[in-house]
Amino acid sequence: MRDSIINKLLCPDCRAGGLLLQNVKQGQLEITDARLVCASCRAAYPVSRGIIDFLTRPSETVNSEIAGWKKYHTPQRNPEQFKDQWLLKLPRLDASVSPDAKSIRAWNHHADNFDLALKQLDLKGNEEILELGAGRCWASAAFARLGCKVAALDVVRDKYIGLESGEAYLTESLFFERILADMERLPFADRSFDLVFSTATVHHAPDLDRLCAEASRVLRPGGRFAAINDTVAGLFDSGQDLEEIEMGINEHAYPINRYKKAMKRAGLKPKLFLSETWRKQLETSTRDLRNPLKIIGFKLSSFLWQNRYFKGPMEYCLVNWAQLIWGIGLHTIAVKRGRK
């Protein structure tokens, strides 16, 4: 951490500002070890290896999430993922770092959708950004490369799974904060950020209304909440990963209207987009589907999409109505109402 973040921080226990920095050990790049003490309630929070730890008393839900990810990602299950060269390739993988074609394909879908989000966000390079569920920190690193001031937040610390992965990216010219905290109880002051970003994270929230309210609270008026690669529940298929649920990970498949209502209640104005993954699949008429009704619907949609007269109406229908039936995935940028 660097002491410039302190003015943004709130004590998770009493929600007061004014945290005091004590027992500081300064490294070459950042403060590597210290503790933060709340001037109001005297709660203390450790800083180790540059990471601020606000999870000194995590909830049962958070503990379950942490334990679940540690079971899901292990060197025994995915040995290639526990190497720096794999980490530094994220999100666009190839056979040089992974023998798993399915994993490469899935990650490259994430990369396509992230590239589309960057284009839509049109960042200037001076934005202050909070990434929720930062995990391996590849998106936070991408924002930092653009010149943005970034805070990466997650509940998992371990390298190659959580925030310690950030060590692979951090250099004198590339820095971002790393904070262990609950995304439903953000340890930041109101109006601290220009952008709250998440990829494949929002659907892990047990309380969607609370998460959106917190994201809105820490955004400045006119700021944006971007959520991509999130599971959406369709009529025919919930889309939930049962293996993850069995391991204790908080997987949820919310209907599209549930996402939209939560954002609107939080004072956010969401606009839905068709993901780059879907755009490419519609162009090529290729998608791995097993449900006969989904197959028919996709083939018809692809046929209409490839006709230039129907492409515009088809995009509107897909992001606003087909979500209800197919659950094609969340890709949204929601603007916080109010003047800057």
E-strand count: 11
* SSE order, one letter for each helix or strand: EEEEHHHEHEEEHEHHEHHHE
Helix content: 25-40%
Order of neighbouring strands in the sheet with most strands: 1-2-3-4-7-6-5-8-9-11-10
Low-confidence stretches: none
Number of helices: 10
Q: What is the CATH H-level superfamily of the largest domain?
A: Vaccinia Virus protein VP39
The description of the largest β-sheet is: 11 strands, mixed
Q: Which fold does the CATH topology of the largest domain refer to? A: Rossmann fold
Description:
This protein has 340 residues and is of the alpha/beta class. The protein has two domains: 1-50, no CATH class; 54-278 and 332-336, Rossmann fold (3-Layer(aba) Sandwich). It contains ten helices and eleven strands. α8 (276-284) packs across α9. The longest helix has 21 residues, at 101-121.
